[in-house]
């Protein structure tokens, strides 16, 4: 029962914070919907695939059989740790970005966040996403989940590279100096 709660609650809370925060920001004329930095269809396909993998992991935690092989209990514990770590990064990154958060590249001027978790990683939210996808793969041991997770990671890495180019243009030397001292992921 505890495992089910630990798997189910974080994505639900994160989505509530994500969309609830977006509604709050819209009230002050800030739209969190940015411009996809890569092909629009590929961008949204990867985002929805990520949500689907989260849903599949939640269903697996409820005992829904998705594949004849079930992960052993110790592996599920490891997966749950990756899951919680990933969502902790997602929450901290989202809250750390505040009004600068966008899904995609901003269409208006925003700030460059370099404090908090962003002193350790330029992309803590993407590290969080990758951690949740590792968790989904380990928790389910489903080859389809693993394949989709690899696809989502590849597309999100492409998104990161495109966002970095945007940030270089938007913030110039400030971003170059930041990139020189803080790694892309870890």
Structural overview:
It is a single chain. The protein has 186 residues and is mainly α. The chain has a single domain (2-181), classed as Four Helix Bundle (Hemerythrin (Met), subunit A). The protein contains five helices and no strands. The longest helix has 39 residues, at 143-181. The chain starts with a helix and ends in a 5-residue tail after the last helix. The model has no long low-confidence stretch (mean pLDDT 94).
Give the helix proportion (percent range).
Answer: 55-70%
- Biggest sheet character: none
Please state the oligomeric state of the protein chains shown: single chain
Span between termini = 33 Å
Number of helices: 5
CATH architectural name:
Up-down Bundle
| SSE class | mainly alpha
Short description:
By secondary structure, the protein is mainly α. It contains five helices and no strands. The model has no long low-confidence stretch (mean pLDDT 94).
Reconstruct the topology from this structure.
Blueprint: H1 2-27, H2 40-61, H3 73-97, H4 124-140, H5 143-181
Helix pairs in contact: 1-2, 1-3, 2-4, 2-5, 3-4, 4-5
């Amino acid at each position: 029962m505890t495992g089910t709660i630990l798997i189910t609650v974080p994505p639900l809370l994160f989505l509530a914070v994500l969309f609830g925060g977006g509604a709050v920001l819209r009230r002050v004329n800030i739209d969190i919907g940015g411009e996809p930095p890569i092909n629009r269809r590929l961008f949204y396909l990867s985002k929805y695939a990520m949500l689907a993998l989260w849903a599949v992991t939640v269903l697996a935690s409820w005992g829904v059989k998705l594949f004849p092989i079930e992960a052993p209990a110790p592996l599920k514990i490891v997966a749950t740790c990756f899951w919680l770590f990933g969502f902790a990064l997602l929450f901290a990154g989202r809250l750390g970005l505040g009004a600068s958060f966008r899904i995609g590249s901003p269409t208006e001027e925003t700030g460059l966040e370099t404090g908090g978790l962003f002193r350790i990683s330029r992309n803590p939210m993407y590290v969080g996403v990758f951690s949740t996808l590792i968790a989904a793969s380990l928790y389910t041991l489903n080859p389809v989940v693993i394949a989709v997770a690899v696809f989502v990671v590849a597309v999100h890495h492409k998104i990161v590279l495109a966002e970095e180019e945007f940030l270089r243009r938007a913030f110039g030397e400030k971003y170059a100096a930041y990139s020189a001292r803080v790694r892309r992921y870890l």
